[in-house]
Write a structure and sequence with these properties.
6-stranded antiparallel sheet, 2 domains, homodimer, 3-stranded antiparallel sheet, 9 strands, DNA-binding, Jelly Rolls, 30% helix, Arc Repressor Mutant, subunit A, alpha+beta, 6 helices
Chain lengths: 272, 272
DNA sequence: CGGCTGTTTGACTTGTATCAATTTGAGTGG
DNA sequence: CCACTCAAATTGATACAAGTCAAACAGCCG
């Protein structure tokens, strides 16, 4: 794990906007060729013809301010979103109207995969840090509009990857104690940041303790205490939302429940 | 919720085998047109030409005996599977080699979606009740072999549906007490059985208490106690693996955490 | 500066895991 | 058909991780 000497915030603009006014979503011209997330783009393997068509259809990136919605639960489904910069959480609602966070997304992530096949979005996407996003109209994948097999393959790959991630998430929500959940969350986030070329050993969390607890199935107080314990163990340094990772490998080992350090070795059994 | 007067086991053979020997997987001729799961099939919306090609590629259904593997973790990925009859669990392994169940599947379900895009299966599929399965070579979806947009659309739909189910599963693993998890599990299973035209108010579970606990993030003893409590509340009758559902709607309400019955109303808070 | 929100820490409570003992059921073989 | 064996399920007693309640503290912003 090597990090850049300078910490780059994921709110940095990867794409220079034409205009610079913040607020409600605005349009910017953004040729796909110049996009910083080209390597994660669905269109990365397209032939020139198909790529041009794709590029024309998505050639606009929206700037979204913190707190705004990319889309709302039960809005009609019309597009996927790729995050170019910033961060986003996606959430459902329970019966009492509480948010249930189902995803925490960083640049390079594709959003709204869970909406495919339905008429409306089954979740909302809320901007945590000012974002640039690329809006990908779903009709691009519609047989009536286009039939680029490569584009389809790329999409199904991404969906399968998302499914695998969900499996992992659901598995470690089952029995792992609080510290392990948090450790794995941090290690996983660090890895994802690294794979997108961000600093992975120090970053600012855009999620509150409450949101982290929500996502990990813990009370916010428990999250706070777990942060303290991980810090006491020397694995991280935490000051409010600023995190420094000292030993990601150890975090991962702890997160996988293979911890053998200290007196607190007991694992909760899963009965098989 | 209406059920058939006669309980039909999901081990019933929907497709008559040519030969009848049980044991290691054998081949049976099975024209897709006569398939009982045609309505759930990926090929259901294909034009005649594409359907024929599809049918030729998958025109064989395997019989698999209880305890056998449809595929194993880290086997090379080559095919998806549709369950025609019987039931199957899919599971990953943790570091200690324990099973972690990520799915419980009944006829009409499509398996191995999570393997797409990788070289090998990320999970194993184990037969719980003798099965007939349809093996769908993944090359059917490969651009080099075919480029039927409809088939792709169907696949991505199924994947998105699986993703939504996983979101729901992960959400209710977070904070819901044992009784709610079990209630929702039973109600959901009942609904799925109903949608596949099986008896939904009485069935035999092919999962053990241990497996259910594993899937729901509970100890097997807790599962057993929850069964007893649901029975005491008059919602179900349970005798070992045989379940009778008396009030599915109430089970669902309970499962969603909106319970107001009895003294045990307290919900575990999720802190928002 | 207040007012507000988010975070930390402490004290107490509780749901469920764990350990342990019993009962039931299925399968096997005489 | 009845014993025997083994796995699965039930039920009870106890312990502990994490939830809840509460209070103090730190940042942030108009």
């Amino acid at each position: 794990m090597q990090s850049n000497p300078v910490v780059r915030s994921i709110t940095n603009r990867f794409v220079k906007p034409v205009s610079d006014q913040l607020g409600s979503p605005e349009l910017y011209s953004k040729p796909c060729d110049a996009c910083f997330q080209k390597s994660n783009c669905l269109a990365r393997s397209l032939e020139l013809d198909d790529f041009r068509r794709y590029s024309r259809a998505v050639s606009q990136s929206k700037r979204m301010a913190k707190g705004h919605y990319l889309y709302r639960l039960s809005d009609p489904f019309e597009a996927l979103f790729m995050i170019l910069s910033g961060s986003v959480k996606s959430c459902r609602l329970d019966e009492e109207g509480n948010e249930l966070i189902v995803g925490f997304h960083i640049p390079g992530d594709l959003l709204a995969l869970d909406a495919i096949g339905g008429r409306s979005y089954p979740s909302s996407a809320i901007v945590l840090e000012d974002c640039f996003v690329c809006k990908i109209p779903y009709r691009l994948f519609d047989e009536r509009f286009s039939d680029s097999p490569r584009l389809h393959s790329e999409l199904i790959r991404q969906a399968a990857q998302a499914l695998r991630s969900e499996h992992l998430h659901s598995v470690f929500l089952r029995k792992n104690p609080a510290d392990e959940r948090l450790a794995l969350f941090l290690a996983d986030l660090s890895r994802r940041l690294e794979s997108r070329n961000y600093a992975c050993d120090r970053f600012d969390l855009s999620l509150s303790r409450r949101d982290i607890g929500n996502y990990l199935g813990l009370a916010l107080e428990t999250v706070s205490r777990s942060f303290s314990r991980l810090q006491d163990a020397g694995l991280i340094t935490v000051r409010h939302r600023h995190i420094v990772i000292h030993d990601r490998q150890h975090l991962e080992i702890l997160g996988r429940g293979c911890a053998e350090s200290g007196p607190n070795v007991r694992r909760v059994q899963c009965n098989g």
